[in-house]
Write a structure and sequence with these properties.
The protein has 158 residues and is α+β, with helices and mostly antiparallel strands. The protein has two domains: 27 residues; 113 residues, Sandwich (Immunoglobulin-like), CATH 2.60.40.10. 30% of the residues lie in helices and 33% in strands. The chain contains two helices and eight strands, in the order ααββββββββ. The radius of gyration is 27 Å and the shape is elongated. It starts with 9 loop residues before the first helix and ends with a strand. The relative contact order is 0.16.
Length: 158
């Protein structure tokens, strides 16, 4: 018979270590979760849901007008060119919403240059998936599309 006290033996400490490591891992996981909250769920989801229904009527209006835009990347800038619909020459509001990083979202009002193009600086936008919305200056119509930046080909909004 072994007269060594329990705290000097291997197996009791091994059996204590297993659940102890799970408790420590759980505490670390809780700390990470509280320090980095998920921003994918909106707190005012009901209001956002109602706003989506209003946006659908604006998308339908853009289709009825025949609005078509091409977005392409030219070096460090994005170029937006209108190919269909009534040419108003007015400013457009363009919104970039990153799918997982809301701190990188961008809303910008752009006007046409002498060649009829709308130019946006691309250096403000990180690589990844984006939801892009093009709105009329008076909010009467909207076009939207998901895309991956940087662009390798032209993207058509219609």
């Amino acid at each position: 018979m072994n007269n060594t006290p329990w705290y000097k033996q291997f197996w009791p400490w091994f059996l204590i270590l297993l659940p102890g490591s799970v408790v420590i891992a759980a505490l670390i996981t809780i700390k990470i979760a509280t320090d980095n909250p998920v921003a994918l769920v909106a707190e005012d989801y009901y209001k956002k849901g109602k706003a989506i229904n209003q946006d659908l009527s604006r998308i339908t209006q853009a289709r009825n007008l025949g609005m078509v835009f091409e977005l392409k990347q030219d070096g460090e800038q994005l170029v937006l060119i209108q190919h269909g619909g009534p040419a108003s020459g007015a400013a457009l509001e363009i919104e970039f919403h990153h799918t997982t990083l809301p701190q990188h979202d961008l809303t910008q009002m752009v006007t046409q240059d002498a060649l009829g193009r709308y130019l946006l600086p691309a250096e403000q936008l990180v690589e990844g998936k984006w939801q892009v919305m093009i709105d009329a200056h008076d909010q009467s119509w909207r076009l939207q599309k998901r895309l991956q930046l940087p662009l390798s080909n032209s993207v058509w909004f219609q």
